[in-house]
UniProtKB/TrEMBL annotation:
This is Signal recognition particle receptor FtsY. InterPro entries: AAA+_ATPase (IPR003593), P-loop_NTPase (IPR027417), Signal_recog_particl_SRP54_hlx (IPR013822), SR_rcpt_FtsY (IPR004390), SRP/SRP_N (IPR036225), SRP54_GTPase_dom (IPR000897), SRP54_N_sf (IPR042101). Keywords: Cell membrane, Cytoplasm, GTP-binding, Hydrolase, Membrane, Nucleotide-binding, Receptor. SMART domains: AAA, SRP54, SRP54_N. Residues 365-378 form the SRP54-type proteins GTP-binding domain.
Length: 392
């Protein structure tokens, strides 16, 4: 009996041991490995867009701005929260876009500098300099002027130790003309809103530019109303409505085919009634013929001015269209008093010389440049920064 009791005791003890071991394993697995310090307590977010795949996640000790909605915000609160975007702040936008400008235009300046820094500036070299400038769409007249000035200065100052970079920078800057007033007239007089009329051919980037300008104004605490007067393209009206919704800006629109002038009139009327700072009016860009265009834009401007004066007429030009774009620019400047140029798609073109060509042709300054399809990819044009971007 004693032996049997001992056997039972041993079996019971072994059984208990096994159960304890298995339970321990499971509990151990649930608990997981001992956490490394500081890897699981903070909320971890990746900054949108910029974060590269292989970058370590950024750890924030205070609550992050972007939280996964499903896990952090209750459904009912999400529905009530306004889905407004906050446009990018001016400082970060300008730094980012300056780099992008240097990326697309840098090759031009570097090419010129390399040619101008040669030991011997012979005829072949001057010809290559001329070709480089013409290829960058600076235009024949300005190219010849620049080459002439560079020849003279390099001959006179070449031996005195003045470096080619300094000469090239000064001459390019003179050509771009830093003295032009490039401020956007977005405010009206006597408590009236500023009225910005945006014109240009379809596809140049008009609607996108209207949306981008409204974001810049919102970021600077201006109140804005948009007028979707490109009523011939239903998509343009929808597109502008979306731009407005994203930043909480009212968009005045009419059904497809409505008279553009009546939409423009209503938009400015709404702006006046609400006492906003700026009304921006998108227009149709059908380049049917000069008379038709003149009738259409002339009427839009006339009816707007029954409410408030137009303070700025911006011509939107696609920088990648070269000579064709210049011809369009000429037609528009003949039918409406253009006060500023917006050059779009400079991110996709190394032909920044068009800045010089179009300013010469129309006698009005480039005021803004489009540098991408992103919502905040629009920058004020600054002559010094532009030349610096060219020279890298
Ligand atoms: P609209 O017909 O003149 O109103 O032209 P849209 O505003 O519809 O623009 C036509 C296309 O150009 C769209 O795909 C825009 O995203 C694109 N676009 C506009 N501005 C820029 C820019 O600065 N850079 C680039 N890469 N694309 C742009």
């Amino acid at each position: 009996m004693d032996a049997l009791a001992i056997l039972i005791l041993v079996v019971a003890l072994v059984g208990l041991g096994l159960v304890a071991a298995v339970t321990g394993l499971i509990v151990g697995r649930r608990r997981g490995p001992k956490p490394l310090p500081n890897t699981h307590t903070d909320v971890i977010v990746k900054p949108p867009a910029e974060a590269a795949e292989d970058e370590p996640p950024v750890e924030l000790s205070s609550p992050p701005a972007t939280i996964e909605p499903e896990t952090e915000v209750p459904e009912e609160l999400l529905e009530e929260a306004p889905a407004l975007e906050r446009p990018e702040g001016t400082a970060s936008r300008l730094v980012r876009l300056r780099q992008r400008l240097a990326g697309s235009q840098g090759a031009l300046g570097r090419g010129l500098l390399a040619l101008l820094s040669r030991d011997r500036l012979d005829e072949d070299t001057w010809e290559s300099i001329e070709d480089t400038l013409l290829t960058a769409d600076i235009g024949v007249g300005p190219t010849q002027e620049l080459v002439e000035r560079l020849r003279t200065r390099m001959r006179v100052e070449g031996g005195t130790g003045t470096d080619a970079r300094t000469v090239l920078r000064e001459e390019l800057l003179a050509l771009v003309d830093p003295s032009m007033d490039r401020r956007l007239q977005v405010s009206g007089a006597d408590g009236q809103p500023g009225v910005v009329l945006v014109v240009g051919v379809n596809g140049a980037g008009k609607t996108t530019t209207v949306g981008k300008i409204s974001r810049i104004l919102v970021a600077e605490d201006h109140s804005v109303v948009l007028g979707a007067a490109d009523t011939f393209r239903a998509a343009a009206v929808e597109q502008l409505a979306t731009w407005g919704e994203r930043v909480g800006v009212e968009v005045v629109r009419g059904p497809e085919g409505t008279d553009p002038a009546s939409v423009a009139f209503e938009a400015v009327k709404e702006g006046v009634t609400r006492g906003v700072d700026t009304v921006i009016v998108d227009t149709a860009g059908r380049l049917q013929n000069k008379a038709g265009l003149m009738d259409e834009l002339g009427k839009v401007k006339r009816v707007i001015e029954k409410q408030a004066p137009v303070t700025e007429v911006l011509l939107v030009l696609d920088a990648t269209t070269g000579q064709n774009g210049m011809i369009q620019a000429r037609v528009f400047s003949e039918v409406v008093d253009v006060t500023g140029i917006v050059l779009t798609k400079l991110d996709g073109s190394a032909k920044g010389g068009i800045v010089v060509a179009v300013q010469r042709e129309l006698g009005v300054p480039v005021k803004l440049v489009g540098l991408g399809e992103g919502a905040d990819d629009l920058a004020p044009f600054d002559a010094g920064a532009f030349v610096d971007a060219l020279l890298g």
